[in-house]
Amino acid sequence: MSMSPIxxxxxxxxxxxxxxxxxxFFRDIxxxxxxxxxxxxxxxxxxxxxxxxxxxxxxxxxxxADEVYYCRMVAVYDDDGKLTDTTxxxxxxxxxxxxxxxLCEFDFIWGLKFNGKIYDSGSVIDPDSGSVYNCKAxxxxxxxxxxxxxxxxxxxxxxxxxxxxxxxxxxxxxVDSAGLKPNIPKH
Length: 187
Fold this sequence. Notes:
The chain is mainly β. Helices cover 14% and strands 38% of the residues.
């Protein structure tokens, strides 16, 4: 009994989908995700560091509006660690986002909602390319850091952001999170 090439291809794809689905099932069961300290555990100032050098690239504020979290840059540093932009004095513009908004004027992460364990259902935009990815975040109490994960088709990368003391903010970077209104870029 022989099968047509189309039927063989269909069965191969179905088998691959089952295997892949099983991989995701087991990955989700066995992957531990630290729980946030509280529903408000991700709010505040965070430091984004270069993964190779450890130098500060930017400081962001993570704030809530109607129980949904957003992240916006409040200070940007160059490769030498020199402050280049703040919310009050921002010159750098996004190259990849329509209208080229200033880096400190829009939310590059938006839509994070607490699901009981982590913040998910969010989006993150790459200011250089304009590409948008799915986004999750959770507070890792052991490392005292915010884990931010960007994903595309289930594959992604984690970034680890350290807490940043508001008293250490450079002049012009301190913002009142209660006064922030979401500003999601057009993409």
